[in-house]
Amino acid sequence: MMLSYEPPAGWRFPTVEEIARPEKGSIRIGPFGSALKKHEYSDAGVRVLGIEDVLPNRLASDRRKFIPELKFRELSQYSVTTGDILVTNMGTVGRTCVVPAGLEQSIISSHLIKVSLEPSVAWPSYVSWMLNCCPLVVAQIEANCHGAIMAGFNTALLKQLRIPLPPLLEQRRIAEVLDRAEALRAMRRAALAQLDTLTQSIFLDMFGDAATNPTGVGTKPLGDHLLFITSGGRGWARFYAAHGSRFIRSLDVRMNQIGSDEIAFVAAPDNAEAHRTRVRAGDVLLTITGSRIGRVAPVPEELVGSYISQHVAILRLDTRRLKPEFLSFFLSLDRGGQRQIAKAQYGQTKPGLNFEQIRRFQVPVPPVPQQGRFAQRVDTVEKLKVVHRASLAELDALFTSLQHRAFRGEL
Question: CATH 3.90.220.20: does it fit domain 16-165?
């Protein structure tokens, strides 16, 4: 497919086939299912790279599959080498990364296509960025997959893709700029993940393992500490507005925080339903239906006065005995509240939590001053997260700008 495109001075617009090595097999799809079956995988041997391993400009390494050396000899033509481009051909079609130096001996599965580039013509990292992010290239991929029952891609379609291509030294420079910017974003994301781990460490240090309760703190039913529990009603859709009060849906409630990616507002009516479902300081929100069931977060000060959807419950606490930050974090722990939430749902055709189940949750109740110290430490960590999230947002905006400039030859 040829798009209307005028390359910058000195740039070309070749196909992937034209920038691949000239020898046969330089663009190759992985072995068909009949050539590699599930029972032939092993616990060690030669690694098999699958669709789950290829992330945008990064090869994942947390989930590994292998085949024995003997099977590898049958499939050695599907081996990858440093600098090869890997492209997904099913699911999220066109997701691409470069085979890094030092990767163990590996082959590709049937859901990947490998491209060995001509090194005197194309720089692998640059081509990977183009395939992942360049609007001109992404549009070609989407057009080729349009109308398929299940989005798929093959070598013939990949060969026809056209890539904006500057001279080799310029490719390297652009790729290095984008790689450095992406590395900064990755560092910021890693820092945020570490802060999440820090909060868990603080909890363990102060209260011990939620499942074994080594400090011997007494537990009580959550209902003993609730002043009020309710969920939203069904009629809020007609009150949606461009501005007004924040409306908190299940997709907004994340573990120990309220997201703000897709904010919704309502012009709340002055009626009993609105008064009942208006959140207050010290409330804890818990998702009670749908795929996001069991997510929990305390209400931050800036969201006091918001309203909730039917999929969210308000847990209003007696804060003289149970602090919202402590309860939220306990309920978010796999070995704490999440285990009880999963058990409450077990065997249900349509997962959900009812108020009686929630009231029966067993919650440890350490001394209130200790809970308060935990809340203070969590607040310190959360303030650090705010700084890191703001920095990440700035890096994301910068990265988007760099990409657009790179694709137009203005970087």
Answer: yes
